[in-house]
Amino acid sequence: MQNITFLDKLTQQLFADFDSDFSEAIVVLPNKRAKVFLLERMKKYADTTFFAPQIISIDELIKEMASVNVLDPVALLFEFYEVYKSVTPKENQQAFEVFSNWAKMLIQDFNEIDRYLLNPIHVFSYLKEIEDIKHWSLDLENRTSMIQNYLNFWETLPLYYNQLYAHLLSKKAGYQGLVYREAVNNLEYFSKNRSHLKYYFSGFNALNQAEEKIIQYLLKNNQARVFWDQDIQFLNDPYHDAGYFARKIKENWGYYKTHPYEWIVDEFRHQKDIHVISTPKAVGQAKIAGKIIEDLQKQNSDLTKVAVILSDEKLLMPVLYALPKSIKGFNITMGYESASNPIQIFLNKVFKMHINALKRNQKNYVYYHKEVVEVLSHPLLFHLLNGDNVVKKINRNNLTFFSNDTLRELQDKTTPFYELVIGKWDIPIKEIVERIQEIILHIKKYLQQIEDRLSLTFLFSMYKAVNQIKNYVDTYEAVATPEQLYIMYKQIADLAEVSFEGEPLQGLQIMGVLESRVLDFDTVIITSLNEGKFPSGKSNNSFIPYDVKQELGLPTYKEKDAIYSYHFYHMIKRAGNVYLIYNSETEGMNSAEKSRFITQLEIEKQPNHNLINSDYYSFIPDKAYEPVTIPKSSELLSELKKIATEKGFSPSALSNYLRNPIQFYFQRILRIRELDEVEENVALNTLGTIIHNSLEELFRPYLNQYLTLENMQQIEQKVEAEINSQFELIYSNAKDKLGKNLLAYEVAKRNIIHYLNFEKEAIINGDAIKILALEKELSYEITDERLPYPVKISGIVDRIEIRNNTLRIIDYKTGRVEKNQVRIKTFDGLTTDLKYEKVIQLLGYALMYQNEEQLYPLEVGIYSFKNRKGGFLLFNLEQDKHIQTVISPDIIDAFKNELIGLILEILDPKIAFEENMG
After folding, report:
1. In whole angstroms, what is the distance from residue 58 CA to residue 393 CA?
2. Which pTM value belongs to this model?
3. CA distances in angstroms from 215 to 98, 175, 198, 553, 634, listed in the order given
4. What H or E segment, with its residue span, contains residue 603?
5. How far apart are CA 623 and CA 167, in angstroms?
6. DSSP symbols for 302-370
7. What tens digit of pLDDT does each residue of 420-435 get?
8. Percentages helix, strand, coil for the chain, rounded to the nearest 5?
9. Number of neighbouring beta carbons within 10 Å of residue 612
10. DSSP notation for 610-651
């Protein structure tokens, strides 16, 4: 460092003013965290033993002055709800979950009004008059009940404020603003009783009206000194936001008319290397931060004077994983946001699973598959829950909705923890909370066994939150349903930041923006320097409009931006090496432009500042995607031989190869299948299977006999029952068919009935139909001198029949097939073009049937359920305007010749499997 730090100067000042007797000194800092660093500075400065001065935060001082405790936000909501019910007629009272939506914002406004010592009656009457003006054009007779209730709300604000203030004060508790107002009210009394003490306010910047009044009063009575840390560059620049509050205080406080403003420093203009680094994505920032630290460690193993400041708390875990393994110690001086706490995520899912089950059917307790799978598949507790088998059964049986009893039956080996998680919540609220506590204790035991200390830290945060919930449930009556319990849980859990243990005085410092106040470092690495992160951007979570806030002197987003500006420039003020990392992504959810502070550094560049811009991007290949190519190794060729000689190639497998050789490789050789997942809506392939299987079962009793009209009528009567049976067997055993599934059911029924009508009409017209086989397996072995070994072709035929003394092989298709798709004019190139896939399939069946006894001419065709008017679409060969549908030996030989060419390509060691990008 080029100059001594702020805490060094403060230490010197304390010893100069008090020598080593600090009994009458009280140091007031912006936060508690700086206390440890100040004590360390004092310890190094002194050469004798001494009693340290009392060091407190500004909040502790205000609390002492007011003699009122600050309530946490959730307890405050409950107390406000009690007040709300006492002043609101019972018929107009809102449920707690509705009330809490607007009450949080209103408490925040009460807080601001009191912190800035405004007259609340004036503020509320002002707001009421604004709303009246907005609706001035409406006569009393024309006002709807909604508008009247809206105006009544504004009229009731003074009542809410006064009653809540009095109620909290009677309990010696309150929100922060109330405590500040009471501190100001007690200021004179407090000052007289502590006239012998000297308060040293150190490192402050933005103050509210209550703080200003308190500090000025103590200054006037010679009971305080204030030590700012303001750089002359910002103080003298009337447009620089980093000096915005300092200029106002220096100009407006009467104390500074006769006393010097302490301290004005000249640090910012000194020599600095400022590295501005852009990279896409948050993970990229973490990796770069880790690499910077690794390089710094090579230069100097002591990283005590290096700080990583995270503008976005979500970046903490990626940064920790990106740190080099050589770092032995570091200190995390920040809270980790609760939304990313894995234990909170798990409990969130448990809450949703049970609350939604109660909403669907309280008696039967019906679960939704996704909610259950999310709970049972939680990565941290997957083994403890032993839910893998349950998830597989849910997917295999296609269970969309199911009862609590079904969920219990799915688990082969239940455990106490599993029973705790899935146990019904149709019990009193207190018992639900106790069950959640038991869940946490089971998780604790498990994490201790596997020695997962990081997860135990997360768990402890939630353990404290659940204990807090139990206290509220015992104290307040507002929580009467699981939904209300969940609302309270979310509010408490969202505030339950995870605090990490560490040694604050040794090693690398990792902290948030606010934790960096008062502290100085040689090297500073700041991440997420983007608009919306640093500064955080505009937000107006208030009932008080912007122009009213401006008129009344309440802080707006402009003051908020000035606070961020001060923090930023303070962080880099004394640092010699500065690394500013921002997300350069310009599209997507997390896109943002670089922070205005980087632009400001570039535009207002100081002579001694060395700005170094760097862009880090992932390697981008010349092509977005390279087709996959799999050479045919000896092992692959051996597997191909096994398939070709044992199981055989099916016509659909050969079509698969024509469509995409890589798809053929994955599905037929590696036998990779799609993961079993629950189909919420019947997929097309599933619908096809239901129709195929239904027709098979309906016609099976009539094999090897000629169909009659009576037979067809018997079949028609069984259609609905058979489709129901197939739906339960193939799709889901749920009895209720709703939404798209009901439509799919009706489509299946309609298709089958239309097909039966088609067959009935054929019988009426004199067709003699005898079904010989259904879903029959056929195979044929091709031997040819061109092939390295005999190759088997195999497949399953949907239906084989004799119709009017002609043998027909029929393939059902639930998709649409046109007549031209089963017609060819030549065999040349038949097995090289995917448009002939239907022909390949039909002729493949014809080839496989060559092993069977053939007493009748053979035809092969398709029945398309989406092209009923086409009837049976028979394969036909068109030559010289002559159309041939009967399969002759010449057709079989010509097809076999083409098929051998395709098989040779598949078996050729020199031709790799290459992905078809078309």
Report:
1. 59
2. 0.74
3. 40, 21, 12, 19, 85
4. helix 596-603
5. 69
6. --TTEEEEESSGGGHHHHHHHS-TT---EEEESEEPGGG-HHHHHHHHHHHHHHHHHHH-TTT-EEEHH
7. 999 999 899 999 999 9
8. 55, 15, 30
9. 11
10. EEEEEE------SSS-PPPEE---HHHHHHHHHIIIII-B-H
